Amino acid sequence: MASPFYLWQASRLHCHPLSCQRPPRRRVLACVLAGALWALALPVTATEPIPGHSLESIRTWVLEHNPELRAMGLETQAAEARILPAGALPDPMASMGFRGLDPDRPWRTVGAEREINYAVRQRFPLWGKRDLARTAASQDAVAIGLDRVTATRGLLSDAEAAYARYWHADQAIDVLDRRIALLRQIEEIAGVRYALGRAAQQDAIRAQVEQTTLQRERIERLAAKQEAAATLNAVLGRRSDAPLAAPDEAPHLAVRSASLAEALDAADTHPAVRSQQARAEAARTNVVLQRRNRFPDITVGVGAMQLGNGIQSTELMLEVEIPFQQRARRERERESRLLEEAALARRDATLRAVEERGASAWSQWTSARERRQLIQNTLLPQADATWQSALASYQVGEVDFGTLLEALNEWQGADLARVDALRDELLGAAAVRAIEGDIR
Length: 440
Hints:
Blueprint: H1 4-13, H2 17-20, H3 25-46, H4 55-65, H5 67-81, H6 83-86, E1 93-99, E2 115-124, H7 129-195, H8 201-236, H9 260-265, H10 271-292, E3 298-307, E4 310-320, H11 326-395, H12 401-436
Antiparallel strand pairs: 1-2, 2-3, 3-4
Helix pairs in contact: 4-7, 5-7, 7-8, 7-10, 7-12, 10-11, 11-12
């Protein structure tokens, strides 16, 4: 009779086929855990916001996700971390020396007892050098922080301009679609008049040719929209083919300055100018620091001499630097003065560049605004009235098809010119806002 242990081993070796194919418990737990993590991550991915529906969503995305701003923020923190070490004392020096060693056997002393000298030295910069170094590092950190503010203004201005082009491409395509739909309507009218013998077949053919021309222009506008979307994604720090939401409404970019002179008044406080000013102040501080280096620093040390197992004597040391390399010091002072003059010249150049950009942006904004107002308030109503009159006259045979087509082109062309002028106005407003400092 077989033992129970033998029967148990036999049952393990000759198990049922279905039971032998069961996966291990660890694999089942791993699959369950992976499924749970995927289920938790799915809602987060599904609810991730897509920018583009409004200008505010673009601004928010730039401030929160742009990698350039994130990198400059880390550089600003790194510059701030350099302030404390700049004015810190240098690390002390510790030394240990052995005296009375046997030249033939340096690991042993000549006498019976070994003499050991211990010393600790600390260098102390005097004459306010540590405070000056700390001040210069602080001014450099301020300059780097202002560089980040300048980059923020520039990126927000670029994002607003790219969004204006993205919105404009949609509006231009809508105008072309309305124009194509009107051409189809007048093509039908021309076909009816041709069937009644009141118009030539050429009218319907001309309408078809005009539609083909507009379809070609529509393809070009679609390409401009894709280019604007790629540019906008680049400013946002996203892939060029990342999806963007359709704009809900026309972007609104308010300019708070009442005149060009008022807009240029903000040039002196522009962060780019203030950054160069901070660098000039850091260079001036460094000039003072180099002059202070003419005066020597001191080093204080304490020591003890051990003989055998006891301390035989102690010592106090005072060391003074000898300002012997005067030529090298004079060249360092000259270098610091030249860097200060260069920083001041660069500040003036930056101020002139900011004023030039402000004047150019203001001219672009005011010109486009006046052009848009003229088209919207005067030309567009006139062209609309001309179109309505030409359509009514063509239906009764008082004007030819060429006159009707010309009236349609003038009307819808004026609408497209209005959209183009609004785009130029928004681009100019974005550039003016970058000078004013409105980054909200």
